[in-house]
Write a structure and sequence with these properties.
alpha/beta; 2 domains; Aspartate Aminotransferase, domain 2; Aspartate Aminotransferase, domain 1; seven-stranded mixed beta sheet
């Protein structure tokens, strides 16, 4: 059968591939420590499960409104108004099959063939295929390790042209684990507000995982709350990270601009794709949204401690350069000083992909190569510390020992 060119050229997710490879090695009896998956090692809160169970028992198994039930959309809108300062109503909210699905739909709704989307890199590896599948071109705006993985307003302005239709910002960020301060976000938002056609897509999936314990300047801030950008911002969020609900697939987009024109377009698109998420999940999602501010802080405290631990351990590896993670649950060390060396198993380390493959096979630690996170990220690896302190110590200890053995 003939396959379309867009699918033939589409790469699979490197993160999911590493996770699958680590699982396969464990099935063979290998003692693999996984730093690949961006998935909290916490369980979904019991009260959320209970609401879903009751909804299922009550027969909520029929079709639901495509953009979400009125109750769930109002719960999200209320949360975005009170906690994020975004002036929105329930009709501006579209609930999707995770924040990834919401981001995909947003690109389909905003991007025409020939449009440019500015992406601050290193960036989540799914942004590029989402833009390209919509017919657009990604313009990388690099913010490497030398600037702490933070883009400046001047560099962002230089990346934007008259073909720029959107800018994607992600703070705290995947893969870097870096969060911006409010002042830094406001300065970048002002650049976007000055552009005549650009929409800001603010990916805030990690907003509850910010660590002022690491960097006192950082905080969660939604640029969609700024009057200058209120009508030109689409805010992405969900329950996967902050409520440990990855498998539930509950994400959303909030788009108040033009009286909800983007939200209406997303709803039409989604009606031809997935329709709504499972009906019995929606009451549980609404309960999670309403309790999020009370439930997620305990998890945040654990991750903040892990962020400090990871920074300390990675800082002890001579051939690594790293920036202390101030949000999310990732570290993104540069490993270029290892290139040109040979591993104990005889592998030549000539790229981050070769590094990731060798450290998995020889040290039994799964990390993600930086090559798919942007040109500026090619010499890096991503380490997810969504695992116990003991696993972090053991895994990074193995990496340190293996790196020291390179010759």
């Amino acid at each position: 059968m003939k396959l379309s060119s867009r699918v033939r050229s589409l790469k699979g997710s490197a993160t999911l591939a590493v996770t699958a490879r680590a699982a396969a090695l464990r099935a063979e009896g290998r003692d693999v420590i996984g730093f690949g998956a961006g998935e909290p090692d916490f369980d979904t809160p019991d009260f959320v499960k209970q609401v879903a169970s009751e909804a299922l028992a009550a027969g909520l198994t029929k079709y639901a409104p495509t953009p979400g039930t009125p109750d769930l959309r109002e719960a999200i809108a209320a949360r975005m108004r009170t906690r994020n300062g975004i002036d929105c109503r329930a009709e501006h909210v579209v609930v999707a099959v995770g924040a990834k699905h919401a981001a995909f739909e947003v690109m389909q709704c905003l991007v025409e063939r020939g449009d440019e989307v500015v992406v601050v890199t290193p960036a989540w590896l799914s942004y590029r295929p989402m833009v390209e599948l919509a017919g657009g071109t990604v313009v990388e705006c690099p913010a490497g390790i030398d600037v702490g993985f933070k883009v400046t307003p001047e560099r962002l302005r230089a990346a934007m042209t008259d073909r720029t239709t959107a800018v994607i910002l992600n703070s705290p960020g995947n893969p870097t684990g870096v969060a911006y301060s409010r002042a830094e976000v406001e300065a970048l938002a002002a650049v976007i507000a000055d552009h005549p056609t650009a929409t800001l897509v603010s990916d805030e999936i990690y907003e509850d995982l910010v660590y002022p314990e690491v960097d006192p300047a950082v905080e969660a801030f939604s640029p969609g709350s700024m009057p200058a950008l209120a009508g030109r911002t689409v805010t992405l969020n969900g329950l996967s990270k902050s409520m440990a609900m990855t498998g539930w697939r509950v994400g959303w987009a909030v788009a108040p601009g033009d009286d909800g024109a983007v939200a209406k377009a997303m709803t039409r698109l989604q009606s031809q794709m997935t329709s709504g998420i499972p009906t019995f999940i929606m009451p549980a999602a609404a309960a999670a949204v309403r309790a999020q501010h009370e439930t997620s802080p305990a998890m945040r405290e654990v991750f903040a401690g892990r962020a400090r631990l990871v920074a300390e351990l990675l800082g002890g590896i001579d051939r690594f350069r790293t920036v202390a993670p101030s949000g999310a649950f990732y570290a993104f060390p540069e490993v270029g000083a290892c290139f040109g060396l040979a591993s104990p198993g005889g592998r030549v380390i000539d790229s981050s992909a070769a590094f990731a493959e060798a450290v998995l096979e020889e040290a039994e630690v799964a990390v993600v190569s930086g090559e798919d996170f942007g040109e500026v990220a090619r010499n890096h690896i991503r380490i997810s510390f969504a695992c116990s302190d003991a696993q972090i110590r053991t895994g990074i200890g193995r990496i340190a020992e293996w790196v020291a053995s390179l010759r």
